[in-house]
Amino acid sequence: MDEAGMSEAGMDGVGRNKSGMGTSVDRIANPWGGRTPYDRHRSWPTRVDTRLGAGVEPDQVQRWVQAASILHSDGDAMDVAVVDGRMVGVRGRADDRVNRGRLGPKDLFGWQANASEDRLTRPLIREGGRLVECDWDTAMDRIVTRSRELTEERGPGSIGFYTSGQLYLEEYYTLAVLARAGIGTSHLDGNTRLCTATAAEALKESFGCDGQPGSYDDFDHADVVALFGHNIAETQPVQWMRLLDRLEGGDPPRLVCVDPRPTKVARRAAVHLAPRAGTNVALLNALLHEIIRTDRIDHDYIAAHTVGFEELASRVRECTPQWAAAVCDVPAASIAEAADVLGDADRLLSTVLQGVYQSHQATAAAVQINNLHLIRGMLGRSGAGVLQMNGQPTAQNTRECGADGDLPGFRNWQNDAHVADLAKVWNVEPESIAHYAPPTHAMQIFRYAEQGSIRMLWISGTNPAVSLPELARVRSILRQERLFVVVQDLFRTETAQLADVVLPAATWGEKTGVSTNADRTVHLSDKAVEPPGEARPDLDVFLDYAARMDFRDKDGGPLITWHDPEAAFEAWKRCSAGRPCDYTGITYDKLRGASGVQWPCNEQAPDGTARLYTDGISWAHPDVCESYGKDLETGASDEPVEYRSLNPDGKAVIRAAAYLPPHETPDVDHPFQLTTGRTLYHFHTRTKTARAPQLNEAAPDVWVEASVSDAAALGLGEGDLVEVGTLRGALRGRLRVTDIRPGLLFVPFHYGYWDTATGHGPSGGAPGRAANETTVTDWDPASKQPLFKTAAASLRLVEHANGSHAPAPTTTASAPCRADAAPPTVGGAAALATETTGTSHHTGGRDIR
Amino acid sequence: MNGLNLTLRALHHGEKHLAGQLTAVAERHRTEHEIHHVATDLAVWSRDHVAHLAETADARGVHLGGSSGASTAGVLSALREKAAEAMAHRPEPGLLLLRDLRELHLGAAENSLHWEMLAQAAQAARDERLLVLVSRCHPQTLRQMRWTNTMIKNLAPQILTSF
């Protein structure tokens, strides 16, 4: 570790802090902090956010260690403050292209969770039905013994791996090699299946290959920003700060917002559409209909760079705003108005997230947003781009390393030349990489475990006993005697409690590795402190397993030749060479002390690449594409020969889709639609954020959101204890009445059971607290992403509030409809962070690319 | 034009049969969630084809009977779904699933060939209305075939090597 380099960067920052005029802000009450307005086409001014633990002064900090955020996908660069081997705070990195010094509330306070008393510090194994402590040798030996038995008796297909979107690139790559070439199983996927699978699939469908087309810099240049099912204020709060700063500067952008909830984005939008859940394709087809009808399309771009336009035009011909208005329950005039704004945009930036990805017809809808940009020629220029977002800090790495349902380096499993190329990189025979079928997706892995053909499931860095749909089913799968469950995590999560072996893992700040954010920016996070007890980096665990399993290449040498993060990164670079996600121009040294770098970064683009597709479509040719595409409605794979005849020259493919009604619609017993989602202050199943007091207190327990009219009709009010039920199960929480779309209920998905008496599930037959007790097991046939946003549900009173309030924030989309209905969310003295603006450079703004 | 009417009749029967099969498979494999949901969606296509075929035939003075192919009676459906849930933790239904997918594929292939015949006959007879019908429905039949083929390809390795 290059400590000298880090302390130098640290002193630099400390100096700036001292010279600047820092202001203290309660970043729980004011999550996005103060404004630094800027004009269109200028660069975003710097604002450095710093949060140090109680009693720590900046000059006491001994080391500032470089890192990037771990509790969302934005990739905000920061330095971790260290005193006497302890983490004591964080500070945004002023020079980074992503955040220019800013941090969101989760990053300002979440680091405290690392030092929680209840971290796992020793491995655990199940003995006589109980988890008991043991040493690493015992735990690993148990895993290796079981792996050997299973591969010999039942074959490699009896072992599955379910990983995360929160490990580092080096860890995913190592896992992908050991699973795909070592074990030889195709059952390896990430929880990225729940967050980013549709983004990847939509990009593959339209552009032949994964890879984010746009760049965050496009926020500086766009005159219209359209956010589709993307509550950016809560999912990527730092980019919302950027939008807020532009909204208050000269020539601000107009926002188009598609979201059924009254998000901060909705409240600032020029046009806000709140469609009925599950109708995105109908709405998008109507928008495309209007734009084509009024001929606000780029005929030259369509001719030069796309195939399939005629099919789209004919498919949306009947999809008038009036038709969609009836399907989506949105005024036709609003749809036409939105189409006007999108159609008149000079530089259009669209962003897409879970309101599309976790909803009915996910891929079909996400692809229509790509189509909007293709027919308007809004790609590859500053301000004109698409950001198919994701939710987790390293989801992009899971995708590119092949630790999700793809082969590493965006290689095409149906293309024998790609598999042969991968086999060469790994020095194995092509046949030893399972590629007779697509890599198995997470939902199918769990199905195979349920049905008994997978007998060992190794879960790293994720908590399916809270995060997967239909939890009663998930628990019944994990509890099976015949299934050997390994869990690698920081805490005794709900899932860990059902495991046979639990491995204590080191986390962010305790290990070194690379993460790549939603706009392809690669950051290095260095180790700042030692992990607690015997906890180990996930990389070390995978390397140890590979060594014990003695995986070999075709010449008898070790399959995995690296022993530390940097060597793993160098190995990955060889795998990425010549692929769209080319990392060959990046080194650890290049990332240290500098801004993050956007891939591809190689000899031709040594400083990285801001935007893909600046000069036509580059990765859709039949010989190079990652996927030949799928039927958006059935998920059926297209064959190479079909793709070759459809798209011989490798242009973008405009794929049309018809609207299909959702599989579950409200009826007499379940008259509401139910959607789940996140809140600003928490991440996933709260394993970290609930252990940061400021974050936990901002949203300490589950709640239920309903509309003003629905609450009135049922005689319900703020703070009433209610029960939400579906065909799968029920949960209880206190009610928050908001300006959400009538007929829709919202429940945050963060809350599980580790901090309740039972530990891993609801007690007895009592209603639960996890949103996923109620969700349906159904997934998008193309991306295989589960649907969390279209269940039919009932709502009933359990008991009136009697002065209680919903434990929901008032600062977010969960704000009560009447401002005085609940006490405001504040953090007080414990939540103060410093904001420093007015540093010498950037203030005037400068023209940027 | 008797041959044309015969083909319409055969296709009407075939689509009705496929709609019923798709619905039955969806129910029988309730715990194979993707099969359940997509087969249910695809049954709608076949039912739609049945209705359009009946309409077209009607206009030609041929009566093909009601546009059935709808979901089977409640008791039987419920029974199939319950049986599926009871077998959720067993591997054997995997083999049954492969057999069912094969039958669906063959059913769709038969329909596809009939659509092909109808298309050829419609061109020979210069029957514009029939051509519109075929170009509307036949692509969906091909997509039903591709779906069953894809699912067999994806599921067979695990099911057949683990049993």
UniProtKB/TrEMBL annotation, chain A:
InterPro entries: Asp_de-COase-like_dom_sf, CT_Nitrate-R-NapA-like, MoPterin_dinucl-bd_dom, Mopterin_OxRdtase, Mopterin_OxRdtase_4Fe-4S_dom, Mopterin_OxRdtase_prok_CS, Prok_molybdopt-oxidoreductase. Residues 62-118 form the 4Fe-4S Mo/W bis-MGD-type domain. It holds the Pfam family Molybdopterin. Residues 1-42, 803-825 are annotated as: Disordered. The keyword rRNA-binding does not apply. CDD domains: MopB_CT_Nitrate-R-NapA-like (cd02791), MopB_Nitrate-R-NapA-like (cd02754). Residues 806-816 have a biased composition (Low complexity). This is Nitrate reductase catalytic subunit. Belongs to the prokaryotic molybdopterin-containing oxidoreductase family. NasA/NapA/NarB subfamily. Keywords: 4Fe-4S, Iron, Iron-sulfur, Metal-binding, Molybdenum, Nitrate assimilation, Oxidoreductase. One of its GO terms (biological process) is nitrate assimilation. The lineage of its organism: Bacteria, Bacillati, Actinomycetota, Actinomycetes, Kitasatosporales. Its cofactor is [4Fe-4S] cluster; Mo-bis(molybdopterin guanine dinucleotide). One of its GO terms (molecular function) is molybdopterin cofactor binding. It comes from the Bacteria.
From TrEMBL, chain B:
It comes from the Bacteria. This is Uncharacterized protein. It comes from Streptomyces humidus. The lineage of its organism: Bacteria, Bacillati, Actinomycetota, Actinomycetes, Kitasatosporales.
